[in-house]
Specification:
homotetramer; 344 residues; alpha/beta; Alpha-Beta Plaits; TIM Barrel; 10 helices; 32% helix; elongated
């Protein structure tokens, strides 16, 4: 921790801060600079509580070097985590995992048609929402339990594990009976009570980045899961909110190599929600893999023009098949990269 | 709804869109413009579902004129809503309501000292958090039920109604036993399941704007409460996330007159969380009242330098007392304004 | 300056950084923390050039405590600057200065009508644009020299100093012949060559904050003017770009007390460009004065519905007169504030 | 254009708007909707001036369908533009063009070493800044004319065309004597006077996207160049400003397929400025090519640790050589893509 003093701070004020730091059992090291003095704090274990210091006279600013997370970093867990979902491995050293399916489960037939299509093209995990977070209360909110039944049945019919979103703690038991991976959506990334409960389960979790979450906050949210004991966490970038409105959100691909460097957790990318536009999904999906993503989550609907939700960003089965062809060929390139996304 | 066609859209493509709109039982009116044709959709009730249209060939863009909310607007409810909290009235035609107290309940003594101080200075409602949403899991998370007991006791001791945050559905019964107003925090503004449950209760609610919520999303979240039957809603602006980091968030005061114009619900402002800096709190609080806010939420701590949470933005009892003095005098000015915030 | 080392940095890597700092003639002080070591750099004069250090092995991050400006701060110039414009004084201890007039000069009659109206209501400085920066080349670009002539004539007719924007260095001579204050617009805040030229003149300057400029960048831009010798600088907040589109920009009023605290330069607010909506202009203008602004810049047009530019945000003469009445009464309140915007 | 009326607008108010539109020689078509009436405006040529309408009673909002640009779109120029720089072709159907070199020219030796290195690795165009826009006035501002001389000499020595930034109109003659492509930097994207002057020249231009420019504003800025007659324009994405600070800017790769679809102009990407971090440059550069970029601009410095500017984001010659190897192999993949970035 670094305590930055005012330009005009007196020697007395500096000494008072030093004394306060030492009362906390830590060491303080004044660092006179060009126009002001800073005071380094030494020997701390983790983030220092600055409540006793920040209001002392002459203190201008406090800069924390320690971060609000620890378990998710490579500092304390250098080896990459590979999350197992049945036989599938998600993470470093494994081919990218493709999760595909409709935004929301609409009927038994729709889910089965979607499952057969994405399986045939080579997807690994089937997605489908039964509980839908919608901006306004007057929009379609999902089929609920019925949707879970259809999703599971479709996954079993084609032999694919499934993923679906959970929105509230009281749904956890129900959803866990039907899904292989729990998805925590962007709007719930800081629903800390939900994170804690999911952290106590032994089930893989996909945690989506909040629309306006910094990387620091994203990792701190994942830390809630690990702190409760659940280390089977897959992160997911899905676009952030910026001033640009030409896309639904701004896909922030730089987050992929950054997080792969900072954290041992795998990270995938959802280009469907990020862009909100079908023609952008394949191209941004492939760019995400080149950026180092461990997988993709792609919306595919057997009849996008009849989708009850997010049809405009869903690929057709044909479009998805083309994408999977491209990905197959792109892998040849990626396997021999000279300067890969992350030094391994 | 307006359907914008490609510059190169053919007459056939235009006719196909017109036919699709008419199949939905609506009227379509082509509007040839300078470089492209647009098609107006008539006779709709509320927002039109565009799934059958957006993928037709030649369609470039769809512009919705209807909004994802209705009950919160003055269109359908022209008179201003005044929310009653016991004897207190929050809303148009009533003096601004001041909610004050510590960020989190820390002890019986702390709450009582805070309650006495803010009551003496003229605050109307006592605030204090028992359940705290914190970015990382290693920070103080609140006293829980014990905190509710202390908050209630302090409120009763000085004769003030109290407000506290609820973070999860399973806490609702407990929290309702102790509080007069339920607060839904910024991170939960789109926790739609929580909104629905609170919408079924007959208790006043303070709904904070999400850190990156547009005004449209903010009102759509309030619509969830009204759609379930709870119209006792107070909105609260608390700063949005922008590129500027000199303040914790960017206080967006323009939202106050905009929402007073669009909606019949009262709106207050929280300058403590918005700025994150004690010296800015009084000045921005007063600016908020001039902007037309129906009240303020202010963090006050008997000993800010010992606060377990957000001490850097808490006023001292003395600072709060000065602010209340200023507000009293500012009211003389506001009561005689020539060009008030909103045309009434 | 603080150099943050990797968690896994070796003692050798730390010593190599220390040696590099000492080669620069500075002192290095290792500060071992909970999970990593930081190295404080001492005895520097101003911002340290970190090029020799940032690439050394084991270095994770470098935190600069010194800022890219100095002359604009109270650290080196504690007394508030009052900018003189003829007889008018802009800054601490003087009544707020109101600059008013149309967005762009359209004709001799329009300018004269505007000048008479704003003068009658009590404005101090007449504004009007002769050179207009417009997003697209197909919009009205201003009357140029003719506009300057009308502006000056109107100002002289009613006895008001005038302000107008300069967009390029080659216009400087011409514009200076007609104006009392040079305005540098938001889009030119980082047109450093223009800043340097204006910095060499002895004429008051109004520098508008760039749409996406941080406070640090805003002050660094002003530093360009002061560094060349021109200290007659008035800063102007006019809204920043955020995700919210309900207003043209997001008016960031917290910047007013922050800058008054950091800098000795006066700061005014332009609520017309910030909000883009006539009904919001008076209310946000008054809020700005309560936030501590040293003045306002307000668009007023004799016939807003016929304005060639920004009519939707221009006040009518009647609306402006009401605002000036309110401001007059608000001053009674502000003169006796208990807890003013800035501790003086 | 669509005029949205208030929910409570009377039939009289609607008729008054219709009459105003017809007075402008256009047709008006009322479109009654669910909760309000909208009025479509027909037969306009380009963007309609709404000044006579927006202030009429009952008008709530005006939605423009026409954009502030025209010449840059495929609507009026369907075929892709290929910009010639000597023998080099930049645009559709040609291999990506790699521009590489140091951020700023520092000496004859440095430029020559850089030129030899990037040429040896296969770069096509040599970059180097002689005039540098810097946030604060106390930073290195470039060598000026001397820098131009070194840049040109180095380009000639190795047989590469060169690109350098121009910051002011009065430098145009000088810079044009030394460079093959004029670069207009992000801070000058809306320096409209500079754009107009450059638009009158017959020289290729690289126009960088402003830090907070929407795609609409970016294309409108390019429109200034085309409107004056210079159609040899290459666009360049270089990151936008968002709340995320883990990278210098947020690289917005979705802009590449969007602009390739909307506009006939080529677009390249600068991952060095966007990320600000050396380890991210190669990975984001390759992702940009997969996203459809027509080229890259990469900072390469013979000794990054001694760079006077932006050393932290400069590749070493070795790192650049690895990247070029990867790009060579990536091209095999891209040439056979099944679902390319843009439908051609």
């Amino acid at each position: 921790m670094l305590i930055v003093m005012d330009h005009a701070a007196s020697e007395d004020e500096i000494q008072r801060v030093v004394a306060a730091v030492e009362q906390m059992g830590l060491k303080a090291e004044p660092i006179p600079g060009g126009s002001r003095t800073a005071i380094g704090v030494l020997n701390n274990q983790g983030r220092v509580d600055d409540t006793l210091i920040r209001d002392l006279p002459g203190v201008r600013d406090i800069i924390h070097v320690s971060k609000p997370y620890k378990l998710v970093t490579r500092d304390f867990h250098p080896a990459s985590t590979v999350v197992q979902v049945g036989d599938l491995s998600v993470g470093d050293g494994h081919p990218p995992v493709i999760m595909a399916g409709p935004c929301s489960v609409e009927s038994e037939e729709q889910m089965l048609a979607a499952a057969r299509a994405v399986k045939a093209s080579g997807a690994h995990i089937l997605r489908g929402g039964a509980f839908k977070p919608r901006t306004g209360p007057h929009s379609f909110q999902g089929l609920g339990k019925e949707g879970l039944v259809y999703l599971r049945a479709a996954g079993d019919a084609v032999g694919m594990p499934v993923i679906t979103e959970v929105m509230r703690i009281s749904q956890l038991d129900l959803v866990c009976r039907y899904t292989d991976i729990l998805q925590i959506g962007a709007r719930n990334m800081q629903n800390f009570d939900l994170l804690k409960e999911v952290g106590r389960l032994d089930v893989p979790v996909l945690l989506k980045r909040g629309m306006s979450a910094t990387i620091e906050e994203f990792l701190a949210a994942a830390e809630y899961l690990l702190a409760e004991g659940n280390g089977r966490v897959i992160l997911c970038e899905r676009g952030i909110r910026t001033f640009e409105r030409a896309t639904r959100n701004t896909l922030d691909l730089s987050v992929v190599p950054i997080i792969r460097n900072l954290s041992h957790l795998p990270i995938i990318v959802d280009p469907s929600h990020a862009t909100g536009q079908r023609p952008l999904v394949p191209v941004m999906g492939k760019a995400a893999l080149v950026a180092g993503a461990h997988g993709l989550m792609i919306e595919v609907h057997p009849n996008p023009e009849k989708a009850l939700c997010d049809g405009a960003q869903s690929l057709t089965p044909e479009g998805f098949d083309q994408l999977m062809n491209d990905i197959g060929r792109l892998m040849h390139y990626l396997n021999d990269e000279v300067s890969p996304a992350v030094n391994r």
